[in-house]
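Troubleshooting log. The previous run stalled partway through. Resubmitting the same two chains, unchanged.
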Amino acid sequence: MEVFIVSFSAILLTGLIHASLGLNLGCLLLLSRYSLGSKTRRPNTKSFTSSFIAGAGTITLLLIMSLCFLLLNLTGGVLPVYLTIIEICVLFTLGLTVWWFYYKKGPGTILWIPRPIARFLDNRLAKVENNTDAFSLGLIASLGEAPLNLVLIFFAASTALQLPIEWQLLAVTGYTIITILPLVIFKCYIKSGKNLVRIQKWRESNKFFLKTITSLGFFILATFIFVFEILPLVGHF
Amino acid sequence: MKITVFKTGQKSVPYSRKILVNNLLSTARAINLPDGQAKEIAELTVNKVEVWLEKHTAVTTADIRRMAERTLKKLNKDLAYIYINQRRII
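Second attempt completed without errors. Output:
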């Protein structure tokens, strides 16, 4: 029972950290801005946002399942100690990176991604014509944040593998649902006819809060892994 | 007089009133402003920007945005906010 609670709590925490990253939400906001602003594409805004969310969810699900498969074949589902230590170090580094660099200083919510990629995403989001475009942009936006979320997905995959087989699918699906939750909430908000300015203003005024929560999340997760995976081993010596 | 507009990382283009009006209308539509109000705001803003443009032969898109923002802030704050911040979302 303890394994269940610890594993599901870890997956929940990892999913929440993943969900607090801002690129997907920023892209969805831009997609809504462009499609609501176009006379011809305005009626399709709901289906575009749904396709974008489906794209983001699909790539997360595919990544976590691929990593599960890879870990199962390479390590038999049990992470070697050296990989766990590397994971902890990467999580600490990412926590510091998010704290120092993730949101750029100045007005707006400009993220720490290369400007050519941001311009590419912006241009593509402005030209979305059908659901396939929106779906593939959902995939690309999630992959654009891979340097930050890959280690989270890796940890979620290794944790899911520690559960009995019948619970693994639930853990993996649960993780994916948590990561797309902010996007679904945003879609419901726009669907109810509310203004997207309020969301962007909220993001801008709470930039510091979001940065703190994400970076603290990385630190807490690293400590969590250290306490539950490394400390028991140290105790044996 | 022909005015050249420089865009970041792209080729310069001649100034076009139509593009500016369409951009403002699109932004207004995105925040659910009624069409009549959106057209009025767009026309007023572009007129003000063009008064400023008369003194220049070459400007950047950022200059035009800043000038438009000054007028928009007096007419509709939400529109001004999203117009100036749409390049600062990601």
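Takeaways: Residues 35-53 of chain B form the longest helix (19 residues). The radius of gyration of chain B is 13 Å.
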